[in-house]
Amino acid sequence: MRLDKYLSKALHISRKEAKELIREGRVKVGGKTVRETDYRVKEGEEVEVEGKSLKPKEKVYIMLYKPKGYLSTTEREAKYPSFIEFLAEHFGHRKLFSAGRLDVDAEGLLIVTDDGELTHRLTHPKWKVEKEYIVELDQSISAEDLKKLYGIKLEKKPVQLVKAEKLSDNRVNIILTEGRYHIVKRLFSAIGYTVKELKRVRIGNIKLDENLEPGEWRELTEEEVKKLKKLVRLL
Ligand code: URA
Fold this sequence. Notes:
- By secondary structure, the chain is of the alpha+beta class.
- The protein folds into two domains: 3-54, Structural Genomics Hypothetical 15.5 Kd Protein In mrcA-pckA Intergenic Region, Chain A; 61-231, Pseudouridine synthase.
- It has seven helices and 15 strands.
- Strands 5, 6, 7, 8, 11, 12, 13, 14 and 15 form a nine-stranded mixed sheet that branches. A four-stranded antiparallel sheet has the order 2-1-3-4. It has a two-stranded antiparallel sheet with strand order 9-10.
- Helix 1 (3-11) packs across helix 2.
- The longest helix has 10 residues, at 222-231.
- The radius of gyration is 22 Å and the shape is elongated.
């Protein structure tokens, strides 16, 4: 692998930044300073930056607070920007995708990764991974109507609803184990309510970090990645 690519993967920096590090003479390979950005790092060769040894990370796992007005897909759609804009500078060299969609007018937790198997398991209904949302409705909801949610079928299939709990007059906490298109909006629409605001606050055992503002992100800790993988039996 080219040295600039290797550094960009290991340090989550752009190729440009990696090239600068190399040109500034801050990078050693096999104990010798290398200033050629296209130097080919061979298997087993030790790369050091300012005396610290590196290993490129295999996969990355990120939690991002998607703001409203952003797509949760990476395709370029002229009308709206993609969540990837928040990550492009750091992770431009990786093919990242979101594990689960979130509508453009919704906000909240995206788990972003280049781990395809984890993504598949977090999103496939078979694995029954919970997704938790806070919903704001156009009107106050009665306990009776809330109960009706449990019997709703969409496309003739029952919605995999775990829990719907009233938080205040028109706010509801809802937990589902599936992610069909517009599922929360259609669920409430089926009982005569309109979803005004939708925020995802949890996927499986990962909660949206309260310290993150819309548009901010952080990598999942090793501990969080482990427990997430355990949840879907990848560990
Ligand atoms: N349900 C919806 O209606 N929209 C989302 O973005 C997620 C779940």
